[in-house]
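Issue 218. Parser rejects a valid record. Input:
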Amino acid sequence: MKIVKAENLACPIDGVELICQENQLICENGHSFDIARQGYVNLLPVQHKRSKEPGDSKQMVSARASFLSTGVYAPIANKLAELVDSYVSGNQSTCLLDAGCGDGYYFDIMFKHLKDKVGQGELSFIGMDISKPAIMAAAKRNKLITWIVGTNRQPPILKSSVNIIVCVFGFQSFEGFYDILAPGGKIILVEPGANHLKELREIIYAEVKRSEPSNLSHLEEMGLYLVEEQLLQLKTGVIDNEQIKSLLLMTPHFYRANKEGRAIATNLQKIDLTIDILFRVLEKR
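Output the parser choked on:
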């Protein structure tokens, strides 16, 4: 398949198509957005922000990149790439969006998995995150992916123009996803299962509550139907103190735990953790 740059970005102010002119994206109403020298574009206007610096901080992005570089979560990324591949037809053009792409780790692996897929169709990739530091890190990974700062609530993408949306441990805005998803398109959710990192959670919290997957049946009212579920369960093997600290900083657990729980977890020298991941596929009908 042929890899092409995405051409379905929309102006975040009025929703019309953005056209690339030199180092800018411009809509017909005169709104323009500079393409940064790193290769990404910021399509998050001030009125769409809910805080001054939304999303992950530089510290969280750095911790995530450090942990993911160890390959501990590679089985998750590879499983996701294989699942996405099963929904990509080699003879049809496909636009893929990673909604909440972080530093681009999962999307880059997906890109490498799909780039040699046989077929006459075209593939385009859009990585989007509300965190500017995350997108700046992602833009260093792969210049053939279109990286944008944007929000899942109001994705700056043309309506019905995306074929597959992946959301890995991210904020799910089904209204925003539905608008940009083409008929027959898929949303692939990657979520922690009930036992994910249970050994770490048992150390951090006085009481660990078993969390069940959210019920998605209400989404049928808007035309999104659950068509597939898969589980991935394995052990990380022993990870060391530096990996533990990076993992803590990239998850919500560090910020939810009390001071004592954080201290105990941060001082752990080694631990063997359970990976428990649920993959769920929704289809737009």
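Fixed in the parser; the record now loads. The CA atoms of residues 94 and 177 lie 16 Å apart.
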